[in-house]
Design goal:
Blueprint (H helix, E strand, L loop, with lengths): L19 H8 L3 H10 L10 E3 L2 E3 L2 H10 L4
Antiparallel strand pairs: 1-2
């Protein structure tokens, strides 16, 4: 039995990562704004958890959904 490097119970195998541009389009703000937010980091709450892959920022759709849910005003 080989070890699976991807924990499929946590993240969908077919879940494509989002670029800054795709994330910005999803939430309806400019890419420039998202770049400013990412420079400050996710601990500010301005952006969801993010990945840095070869210098490029990417977002998991599941993290974006969770982040959006945390922004809901009740």
């Amino acid at each position: 039995m080989s070890a699976d490097p991807i924990d499929r119970s946590t993240h969908a195998a077919d879940e494509s990562l989002l670029s800054i541009d795709a994330f910005a389009l999803w939430i309806g703000v400019s890419s420039h704004t998202v770049r400013k937010w990412t420079a400050k980091g996710p601990t500010t709450g301005l952006v969801p958890r993010m990945l840095r892959i070869n210098g490029q920022i990417r977002f998991r759709p599941s993290d974006v959904r969770e982040w959006l849910d945390s922004k809901e005003i009740r």
